[in-house]
Amino acid sequence: MTDQSNKSITLTINGRAFELQIEPQWTLSYVLRSKLGLTGTKEACSEGACGACTVIVNGQAVPACMMLAIEQEDKAIETIEGLSADGKLHPLQEAWLEEYGAQCGFCSPGMILSAKSLLDKNPAPSVAEIKAALAGNICICSNYDHIINAVTVAAKKMKRRSANG
To answer: Rounded to whole angstroms, how far apart are CA atoms 41 and 76?
Structure first.
């Protein structure tokens, strides 16, 4: 017997289309983690308060636990798994490692994607702008100084790379 509440949708994640049968109440974080195996999107508070599940939808950092997957059709979704390309880390990932942005690492995917959304719009943010962009992300290790340094270093790396073509 087929469940009549299932819907067929196509989600575009990290530039790749995924055809899925989903239930209308499933969140984007649930679909990413449980149906597609993209476990970089962390699930913590399930209330949109911690930022662990942050992904980028149409250029905007959003909590995936608060987004219904069914409403994300025809949108560009980016997850942490899509950041590296051709075996090379994204400058944010490089800077995270160099500046010790991760302690336990649980918040890192959401923090990195919030930072990417910021840097895509503002390639040279001030410390205050970085803090504002990351305000929706909680680090239980209280590693904020290292995280802010990592975003600052990543901005410089990205500027150098774009200047070098």
So the answer is: 16
Which of 35, 36, 41 lies closest to 53, judged by CA? 41
Q: Which residue segments constitute the domains of the chain, with CATH numbers given?
A: 7-82 (3.10.20.30), 91-163 (1.10.150.120)
pTM of the model: 0.93
pLDDT (tens digit per residue) in 135-151: 999 999 999 999 999 99
Distance CA 90, CA 47 (A): 29
Look up tokens 């055809």; give the residue.
19
> What are the tokens at 114?
């919030």
